[in-house]
Design goal:
Blueprint: E1 2-6, H1 13-21, E2 25-29, E3 41-44, H2 49-58, H3 62-70, E4 75-78, H4 80-85, E5 86-89, E6 100-105, E7 116-122, E8 126-132, E9 137-141, E10 146-151, E11 154-160, E12 163-166, H5 177-190
Parallel strand pairs: 1-2, 1-3, 3-4, 4-12, 5-6
Antiparallel strand pairs: 6-9, 7-8, 10-11, 11-12
The structure holds glutamine.
């Protein structure tokens, strides 16, 4: 299984380490030629969504990635990566990939003071550590979106078909549960 990890900005090395630990092959996507047809899935890491969007456009990566995700390529977005996939935002008209039918409150947990770690249930995996760094949360989900995790009444993980998005950073913990969940999605999607 070969997973592309968007490596323009932000916390991508930690994703690579975690995927390698789970025996997935990884490719750093730094330019258009790295985004090859043989990739089975893609990780959109945390970082700064506005900076990432600008780099995606400047490097001519925005359209090819958007088209691949629309065509069903499995994608896993963490924090800024989740923001990149979302369709709607509270208090803003940002337009990114516009794929995931959710509404997001960017910096929902606050800025620096809003960085924290908790343990909460994730889908059928059970309790996992969740690290938030100026994280968003999801305020609304539309039909077809499954909620995978919540902190109180705040939604922090969702899945819609081939798209998995979490507001926290599983790659900054030693728990591989969410990455395994994603690799299973990839396996069920594409290996037959
Ligand atoms: N606040 C950041 C953004 O809007 C996301 C923070 C993160 O990825 N840790 O892109």
């Amino acid at each position: 299984m070969k997973i592309g990890v968007l490596a323009l900005q932000g916390a991508f090395i930690e994703h690579i380490n975690m995927l390698n630990k789970l025996n997935a092959e990884t490719v750093e996507i730094r330019q258009k030629s790295d985004f090859t047809k043989d990739l089975d899935g893609i990780v959109l890491p945390g970082g700064e969504s506005t900076a990432m969007k600008k780099l995606l456009l400047d490097l001519d990566l925005y359209e090819p990635i958007k088209q691949a995700l629309e065509a069903g390529m499995p994608a896993f977005g963490t924090c800024a990566g989740l923001i990149l996939m979302a369709k709607e935002f509270e208090d803003s008209t940002w337009k990114h990939f516009e794929l995931l039918d959710i509404k997001i409150k960017r910096h929902g947990f606050g800025r620096q003071v809003g960085s924290f770690r908790v343990e909460e249930d994730f889908a059928d995996i059970g309790k996992i550590p969740m690290v938030f760094i100026r994280g968003p949360y999801i305020t609304e989900v539309r039909q077809g979106v499954d909620v995978l995790a919540k902190i109180g009444d705040k939604i922090v993980a969702v899945r819609q078909n081939n798209l998995l998005g979490v507001a926290f950073h599983p790659e900054l913990t030693d728990n591989t549960g969410v990455h395994s969940y994603f690799l299973n999605m990839v396996k069920n999607c594409c290996e037959n």
